[in-house]
Amino acid sequence: MFYLHQRLDPAFEELLGRAVAGAPLSRADGARLIRARGSELAALMLAASTVRDQGRGQVVTYSRNVFIPLTNLCRQKCGYCTFARGPKDPLAHTMSPDEVLALAEAGRRRGCKEALFSLGEKPEEVYDFVRDDLRRYGHETTISYLREMCARVLSETGLLPHANPGIMTREEVASLRECNVSMGLMLETTSERLHTKGEAHFNCPGKIPQLRLDTMRYAGELGIAFTTGVLIGIGEAWEERVDSLFAVKEVHEEYGHIQEVIIQNFRVKDDIPMRHKDEPSVYEMLRTIATARLILGPAMNIQAPPNLTPDAYGAYLLAGINDWGGVSPITKDYISPEAPWPKITELREVTEEVGFQLRERLAVYPEFVTQDRFVRESCRPSIERWTDESGFVRWEEHAW
Ligand code: SF4
């Protein structure tokens, strides 16, 4: 490779050359890449950009969504979470069917196409009053209520549901299949060390890596386009971060259903147990994104949320991402409420300034729309109404 005559370590340059040529990388290779500094980091980013261009070209996507926090109660409390509310918190709430449908309809009127159902994991297992709410809505479990709400939003508004309810059994994943255009679960990390006392996942049984990988596998067996990702800066070591990326790669090689991988940076909030921890820097994000691109290859969609790095997210395009994720004109990011979404006009400006073209996509990526095993008949009318022959959204409202 030609790197402007920079004097790189020859072994590092040889490694980048292999990665760009598509040779498989080992975990040791990944661990070497993710520690790049100085000129090595610049070369790593160039290699990752080259691989992104091979598979995704210059098109960068986003999905226009409405965020539906079906319940903000959860059976666990992760050290970085500000979404889940305690039972005595006046903001603790499970949305009624009328609230869900009114919010979805408001989203439809603002041009949203995705109904992003993000919610706490199985809160009825620990809270009586959640069980009472669910019974009032005609259900025994959150998953069963979620299923009805996804089906009603799809049939009554045409918005395409994408549910993220946490870990699930195979039967639970199957129950959501017909009424979701895609589903999601962040792997976050494969580090079991983070389950010890004082770490981010202490007392969080749903964050056991094997259980999360099982849920991802069920989705693969059932032909569901799936979103996952890693959460960086929650106490994991660099090598553990690389292990997590390889775990995602292995599941995708088995089932071919991982439609996107999110690289999400931990953000400090005042009301979380991890409020005294450092946030990952932009450079740490750049190293991780570029390494993820080289491990996951040219075809994978790699996303970093723009609102979590508001001053510098454009630089992520130079490290190999090709997607900004969901952006909402109507609801805040309930997972990071302190971080407002950029307007689409701003996102377009930043994307074009760096040299790329912004396109709207659905909650299912164009290459999955054309594969029958990933498309439910119930979702097809909305998909056909909104997409052109390329699978991207047909028309775009450039401002809100
Ligand atoms: S991050 Fe998710 S699983 Fe963890 S406490 Fe928050 S809502 Fe629950």
Please explain how this structure is put together.
Strands 1, 2, 3, 4, 5, 6, 7, 8 and 9 form a nine-stranded parallel β-sheet that branches. The chain has a domain at 52-67 and 166-386: Aldolase class I (TIM Barrel), CATH 3.20.20.70. It has 400 residues and is α/β, with parallel strands linked by helices. α3 packs across α10 (282-296), α8 packs parallel to α9 and α9 runs parallel beside α10 (282-296). The longest helix is centred in the N-terminal third of the chain and has 19 residues, at 38-56. It has helices spanning 10-20, 27-33, 38-56, 97-109, 128-136, 142-157, 170-177, 209-221, 238-255, 282-296, 344-354, 366-369, 380-386, and strands at 59-68, 114-118, 160-164, 182-184, 226-232, 258-265, 302-303, 323-327, 357-361. The protein has 13 helices and nine strands. The mean pLDDT is 94. The site of iron/sulfur cluster (SF4) has 11 residues, from loops.
Detail the topology: elements first, then pairings:
Blueprint: H1 10-20, H2 27-33, H3 38-56, E1 59-68, H4 97-109, E2 114-118, H5 128-136, H6 142-157, E3 160-164, H7 170-177, E4 182-184, H8 209-221, E5 226-232, H9 238-255, E6 258-265, H10 282-296, E7 302-303, E8 323-327, H11 344-354, E9 357-361, H12 366-369, H13 380-386
Parallel strand pairs: 1-2, 1-8, 1-9, 2-3, 3-4, 4-5, 5-6, 6-7
Helix pairs in contact: 1-3, 3-10, 4-6, 8-9, 9-10
The chain binds iron/sulfur cluster (SF4).
